[in-house]
Amino acid sequence: MRFKLADLEEVLESIGATQAELPPGFLVRRAHLQESDSPREMLTAHATALPRKPSDLRHMDYGKLRLDEDWVEYSNLATLMKSEAHNDDPRFGGTKAPEPFLERHHELVRRLMGWPGWEISLRRPGVHRPDWGERAPLLMPHKRPFRNAALAVNSFVWDEPDQGPPDSARILEEDEFIAYIPDRRARISNAYWTGNRLQFSVEGTAASDVHVLCTFVDVDGSSKFVELHSESAPVQVPDNSRRIELYLLNESGERFNSATLTMPGEGYTHEGETADATKRALTDMGSGENERIEFKPFIKLNDQKWQEVTETVVAFANTQGGRLYLGVDDNGVPQSGRALCVACNAGPDDAAQAQEAYLKKRIRNSIKPVPNIETQWLELHGEPVLLAVVSPGTEGPYSTVQNDVFVRRGASNIKPDPRSELPLLFPMEEERNEQLAFPDSW
Question: Is the pTM for the entire model greater than 0.70?
Answer without folding.
Answer: no
